Each structure stands twice: as structure tokens, then as C-alpha cells.
Amino acid sequence: MKLSQRLSHLQAMVDGPYQHIWDCCCDHGLLGAALLRQEAATNVHFVDIIPGIMQSLQGKLERFFPPAAGASRWQVHCIDVAKLPLADYPSETPQLVIIAGVGGELTGELVSAIQQRADTLGQEIEFLLCPVHHTYQLRERLDTLGLRYFDERLISENKRCYELLHVARHGKQPITAIGDSLWSQAPIETQVAYLRRLLKHYHQVIRGSKQEQKPLLERAISDYQAQLDLLSA
């Protein structure tokens, strides 16, 4: 199957080769399969917690990527993404963990759990992330974890915008709450529409939010409004 624009952009951001790539919340495994064809890693791991999806994916991988000379370049793991078996796959070079298609809050929880496990093992991890919403909260959490970014992109697909982030402890630039380089990429009409949708969302959320949540939401509204004003100037 042809990759969606979002998955194609994620594939283009993989600047391996890596020894291990973990395609998490992989659903039908399209991105991981593309990375296998690209030979972006020695081993590609497909990870999801839904047994039916993973059983189907196992069969497709056996058909299209049969093991050569008794060795497989891929593994299927039906487990909680927060519990990646990094200890079973040691590497002297950074491993890449891809988390796409889930919300920013869950993405942050998964990144935190995986980074903690990697720190315990002395393993370097890079993350390639594409949350479906709540990127402001996610970015603040990534910064708190001491991560920095190599690359960040804003893309539009089916009238929705997505932020793509490639981050790690050894990244090049500090992660900011709304992104720095995002706003020089997509067409200005796309940026404006995205910011307006974000502002509408946060204005709705803050009305029903708990008092302890309001400071973050107020910061998000202020920062996004400032960026919109800058674009509109």
C-alpha cells in the first residue's frame, strides 16, 4: 500500500542506518515495512498491543519479507509500548523509537517511560514523534525530560495539520512550546488555519478545565495567539 503523506514525511526523517528501529503503535505496519525496504535499520521492530493486528502483520511480514538464511531483519512484539524490551537488544549506537498516531499526553507518557528505561540501561534513544493533538503539552514534557530536536516539521494531510518531531538527549536545538522552525515551512495559509484551530480548541478546553490546568492552557493560548499575530502582521 502507498504511504500517506504523513507517513512519507516520517520515512524521510529517518536518517539512519540504525541498528534497531522500533515502529510503535504501528497499526498495519506500513511505515516499518517501508523502512525495511529502505534498509534503514539492521532490525525493524513492530510494536502494538492489539493481538489481532499483530497476528495479521506477522503473516504479511513472513510473506513479503521472508527470513534470509535463517536470520530475520524484523520482529513483531505484541506488548505495551511503555515496556519495550530494550535490554534484549543492546546497541552501541542510538536506537530509533517511532511513536505516531496517538495523542500528545499518551505520547509523552510513553517517551518518559522508554527514556527512563534507556537511562537505566545506559542506552541512547532517539524518538520520531507525530502526535494527533496536544503538541503544546507534549513539547513542554519533552523539554522537561532534557530532550532536544534534530528536526521538526509541520505538514498538512486531509485538511489536518500534524507536527513531526525528531528528538533525543543529544539533539541539536532546544525544544520550544510551539516550535521554532515550523513556521517557515508550510504555506502561510496552512499555518494560519492550523493556529486558528488550535486557538479555538484551547479556548474551548480552558472553560471546563480544572484550576491547576489553567496556567498551561493560558500559556498555550498566549503563545499561539502571538504567533498568529506575527503571521498576520
Q: How many β-strand stretches?
A: 8
Count of separate structural domains: 2
Helix content: 40-55%
Q: What is the name of the CATH superfamily of the largest domain?
A: Vaccinia Virus protein VP39
Supply the CATH class of the largest domain: Alpha Beta
What name does CATH use for the topology of the largest domain? Answer: Rossmann fold
**Spatial extent as radius of gyration:** 18 Å
Distance between the termini: 43 Å
Structural class: alpha/beta
Strand count, sense and closure of the main sheet?
8 strands, mixed
What is the N-to-C succession of helices and strands? HEHEHEEHEHEEEHH
Name the CATH architecture of the largest domain. Answer: 3-Layer(aba) Sandwich
Principal-axis shape equals globular
List keywords for this structure.
Rossmann fold, single chain, eight-stranded mixed sheet, 7 helices, about 230 residues, alpha/beta, 2 domains
Report what the structure shows.
The protein has an 8-stranded mixed β-sheet with strand order 3-2-1-4-5-7-6-8, with helices on both faces. The model has no long low-confidence stretch (mean pLDDT 93). Helix content is 42%, strand content 23%. It is an alpha/beta fold. The protein has 2 domains: 5-184, Rossmann fold (3-Layer(aba) Sandwich), CATH 3.40.50.150; 187-233. α3 links the parallel β2 (41-48) and β3 (74-78).
Q: Layout of helices and strands, plus pairs?
A:
Blueprint: H1 5-12, E1 18-24, H2 30-38, E2 41-48, H3 51-64, E3 74-78, E4 95-100, H4 104-121, E5 125-130, H5 135-144, E6 148-157, E7 160-168, E8 173-174, H6 188-207, H7 214-232
Parallel strand pairs: 1-2, 1-4, 2-3, 4-5
Antiparallel strand pairs: 5-7, 6-7, 6-8
